[in-house]
Amino acid sequence: MHPYVRSGLMAVAVASAIGLVVAGFLAAESDEVTLPDAIQRIIPTDGALIAPQGNVGVDLSDDHTGVLMIDGREIPGFQATSVESLGQVFFSPGPGKEIREFRAGTHRITVVYWDKAKTRDDGASFSWTFRVG
């Protein structure tokens, strides 16, 4: 093979590799979850790693309320920390609660939320995951 052809092929291979790395970084940045309009923030972010006693929850718009479900189990309202006027609902596991601590692995959290002027039956839901190391 002619040296110029070999050099040209090598340049194409290097350029392709660099393009794949750049595309990977751009794709990683665009993996951020798009939240519904009524959800201002989720804690933790989708896929985040937290401690076994970590705090999870959601900050809804002020005119919404909701309940949390973790791995399919609804968290009773008296075990959640809620600021009704701000649309915030959070949960930290502990003794005497539905979940004493989060086990290692991936967990799914769902918020069922609705406009305060309506009923839960009129609501929607949103889910994301978090991990415990």
Please explain how this structure is put together.
The chain folds into two domains: about 1-30; about 40-130, Immunoglobulin-like, CATH 2.60.40.1220. About 20% of the residues lie in helices and about 35% in strands. The radius of gyration is 22 Å and the shape is globular. With about 130 residues, the chain is an alpha+beta fold. Strands 2-9-8-4-5 form a five-stranded mixed beta sheet, with no helix packed on it. The chain is built from one helix and nine strands; from the N terminus they run αβββββββββ.
Notable traits:
Immunoglobulin-like, 133 residues, 1 helix, five-stranded mixed beta sheet, four-stranded antiparallel beta sheet
According to CATH, the fold-level topology of the largest domain is Immunoglobulin-like
Amino- and carboxy-terminal Cα gap = 53 Å
Number of folding domains? 2
For the record, the CATH class of the largest domain is Mainly Beta
What amount of the residues lies in strands?
A: 35-45%
Q: Say how many strands there are.
A: 9
Read across the widest sheet, the strand sequence of neighbours is 2-9-8-4-5
CATH architecture call of the largest domain: Sandwich
Q: Which spans of ≥5 residues are poorly predicted at pLDDT below 50?
A: 8-30
Q: What is the string of helix and strand elements?
A: HEEEEEEEEE
Average pLDDT metric: 84
Main sheet makeup: 5 strands, mixed
- What is the chains' assembly state? single chain
How many helical elements? 1
- Share in helix: 10-25%
